[in-house]
Design brief:
heterodimer; A: 98 residues; alpha+beta; Arc Repressor Mutant, subunit A; three-stranded antiparallel β-sheet; 5 helices; elongated; B: mainly alpha; 0% strand
Chain lengths: 98, 202
């Protein structure tokens, strides 16, 4: 039981962060607008959660211009993917144990 | 957190993974229509060849041009109906019908399809037409399989069916027309109905 709790990652301790990672697990990348629409959150809210995930290096950020418009792409890092898998496994075990 | 909350997390994760990578509003009804258009088109071609060309199709002349037009018409009608019904369904479901997922769906479908279509035109212009029906089925199957990653899994089963029919048809070139009728006509109606009854009729 203790081990399972250890694998529950603090960085994913929020619905929106979990949501961002879910989308990035199955897509090569996602831009800010796509994430915003999928998760139904405000700009500021999404920005603060992507920053948190960026800080622990679970996602990487690519900024570029499409024409004159700035475009921000998010990609899950190998570390982020591994941690997310561990987190999901832990969640599933917690559910089964109860 | 309670077990219920964890369960809710997991189901939300699954939902987001599907929503962000698969377009689920593809209309089954449009498959049924495509099948019906294909059957009408094939019926017209059959009648044309048997009435005006004594059962044989030559690669030159008006009959061949008419059959090509017939094929193009079936294709255009099917695509138009599919776009119309699918956007309607997406609107009803509140799903975006022009986003990263649908763009991926369309490009992954069109690239093998266009390559195959051009290839068929090239070999037709070289006078090799025995395998046309088989090639259409195989390339269409490959295009569907490629697109199926981004949409409902029925598309994948239809893809396997078309590829298998295409390969069998290649063994019996004389029966190409009938395999075409089964693959593009009846199979569209069958899989379209399965999708329709599972996802649309409520």
């Amino acid at each position: 039981m203790k081990n399972i709790i250890l694998n529950i990652n603090k960085a994913f301790d929020h619905r929106i962060r979990l949501g961002i990672m879910s989308v990035l697990m199955v897509n090569e990348y996602a831009d800010f607008k796509t994430l915003k629409e999928l998760l139904g959150v405000t700009d500021g809210n999404l920005a603060s959660h992507t920053k948190a995930l960026e800080k622990v290096e679970f996602i990487s950020v690519e900024k570029q211009f499409i024409g004159r418009k700035p475009n921000t792409k998010y990609v899950a890092t190998a570390l982020g993917k591994a941690e997310f898998k561990k987190h999901i496994n832990a969640l599933e075990k917690l559910i089964k144990n109860k | 957190m309670s077990t219920e909350e964890y369960l809710k997390d997991i189901s939300e994760i699954k939902n987001l993974m599907n929503k962000s990578s698969r377009f689920i509003s593809l209309s089954g009804l449009s498959g049924i229509f495509a099948g019906i258009y294909a059957l009408i088109g094939a019926g017209f071609a059959y009648w044309l060849v048997n009435t005006y060309s004594s059962g044989k199709l030559y690669l030159t002349g008006d009959i061949f041009t008419l059959i090509l037009l017939d094929l193009v018409l079936v294709f255009v009608l099917s695509v138009t109906t599919a776009i119309f019904l699918t956007t309607q369904k997406a609107k009803k479901n509140g799903e975006a019908y022009w986003d990263a997922t649908t763009k991926k769906l369309i490009t992954s479908f069109l690239i093998p399809l266009i390559a195959g279509g051009l290839y068929i035109f090239i070999i037709l212009s070289q006078g090799k037409y025995g395998q046309t029906g088989a090639l259409m089925l195989i390339f269409y199957g490959i295009a569907l399989y490629n697109a199926s990653k981004h949409t409902l899994s029925y598309v994948k089963y239809l893809a396997f069916t078309e590829i298998i029919l295409g390969l069998i048809s290649a063994i019996y070139p004389g029966l190409g027309f009938w395999f075409w009728v089964i693959g593009f006509g009846f199979m569209h109606i069958l899989y379209g109905s399965l999708m329709y009854f599972e996802y649309e009729r409520k």
